[in-house]
Amino acid sequence: MEIEKAVRRMGLADTYEDRHWDRAVKVTDNAVQKAEPEWLERLLAALLEVEKPTHPMRYGFEVALGRLASAPGDAQRTARVRALAVEGRAWGGDLRYSLPEVAEWLACAQPPEHLLAVFDGAEASDELAACLLQETALRHDATSAGGFAARLRAAGHPLADLPLRPVGAERHLGLPRYPGRAEPWRPPGEGAPDAPGPSGLDVDAAAVDWPGARQALSAYRNWPSGADALEAGLFRLDRALAPSDFGASLLRLLPAASTGATVAGVQRVVTVDVLRTLFSGAASGGAYGPRMHGAYARKAAWESLAALADVQETGLAAIERAADRCTWLFYGSDWHLQVVPPLDAGIAVLRPDGRTVAVLAVTDSD
Fold first, then answer.
1. Full pLDDT tens readout for the chain, 366 residues
2. Phi, psi of 111 (to 5 degrees)
3. Cα–Cα distance, 286 to 31 (Å, whole number)
4. CA pair distance 258, 137, nearest whole angstrom
5. Other C-beta atoms within 10 Å of 196: how many?
6. Mind giving me the DSSP string for 94-143?
7. Distance, CA of 11 to CA of 5 (rounded, Å)
8. Residue 56: is the preceding peptide bond cis (ω within 30°)?
């Protein structure tokens, strides 16, 4: 289809009530979804010339931009997608994609050498580049972008202090990257041993104030709020518990909404499992988002892990070492909505003192 014809058809209607609506939106299904990258780039440029874009135009722009970003190309392709994405945010007004999302698209689909070329001249005010730096760092070695990272630190950017290469447990996040695909979704704790705990456990647990509760929920701050969807609690045991005794029987004694008699499926997991669950929750944003995507999900997941493990240090390696000294459980209960498995999480941790237990639970439905 010719570019001019595609733009004209997208402009036939602005709402589904218009009799030309089907013709307008079918351009995306029949042409945009199947087009080659060069055609998509010309379409995007043509759409940006329209002063008052219709809904089908904005929808077509989003789809075309995503497909262009996801088609492997050269460094010029990456630069062009970045420019189009920024222009599109100013053009369409209510376009649904975000700059962190575009950064994720590019990092998944483009070769690392073309991603790294972005940072040579990027300014600290370039939010898409800042997000792309973290998306790249999670998948590759981005230490060559140290100059850009320094500019971000000088500007006080919230992502500036994150490492420029994967750290420890981050190597097992299963992110999609070029070339290749993401690992298939696996249930949290798949293959982890069950942790029933000793029967007849004689321990008392009392809820205590937790200043770090809000930080613990960092990975889920874009999920539905409220006591019926999010819980972060800290509990003090009346005696020290051996790590081997930390299991379902202890969780059933905790005065928490997400634990109690219905606790089931309790598994003993390790730091890698916990970080992967936190990162996935942050990146996905629950059933309806908004998603953080990889860059901000990286920061949020480590913040949550640090709060759960009671770590005051900010270095990721130090947080992971402290988390490794804790004992971790995944659990479910009737408190969880149990609609879609990735939308339920229950994390419990016994800290090294053997007397302090923190829990983090979230649930959502589509």
1. 899 999 999 999 999 999 999 999 999 999 999 999 999 999 999 999 999 999 999 999 999 999 999 999 999 999 999 999 999 998 977 788 999 999 999 999 999 999 999 999 999 999 999 999 999 999 999 999 999 999 999 999 999 999 999 999 999 998 888 777 667 777 778 899 999 999 999 999 999 999 999 999 999 999 988 878 999 999 999 999 999 999 999 999 999 999 999 999 999 999 999 999 999 999 999 888 789 999 999 999 999 999 999 998 889 999 999 999 999 999 999 999 999 889 999 999 999 999 999 999 999 987
2. -60, 150
3. 31
4. 35
5. 10
6. S----HHHHHHHHHHHS-HHHHHGGGSS--TT-HHHHHHHHHHHHHS--G
7. 10
8. no
- CB-facing half-sphere around the CA of 175: CA atoms within 13 A: 30
Q: Are 144 and 115 in contact (CB under 8 A)?
A: no
Asked if 205 and 235 touch (Cβ cutoff 8 Å), the reply is yes
Gap between the Cα atoms of 140 and 136, Å rounded: 6
What is the token pair recorded at 332? 């479910």
User: For residue 48, which of 16, 7, 99, 103 has the smallest C-alpha distance?
Assistant: 7
The residue length of the chain stands at: 366
> Residue type at 197?
G
Residue 271 one-letter amino acid: T
Q: What is the DSSP string of 348-361?
A: EEE-TTSSEEEEEE
Question: Is residue 192 packed enough to be buried (19+ CB in 10 Å), middle (13-18) or exposed (0-12)?
Answer: middle
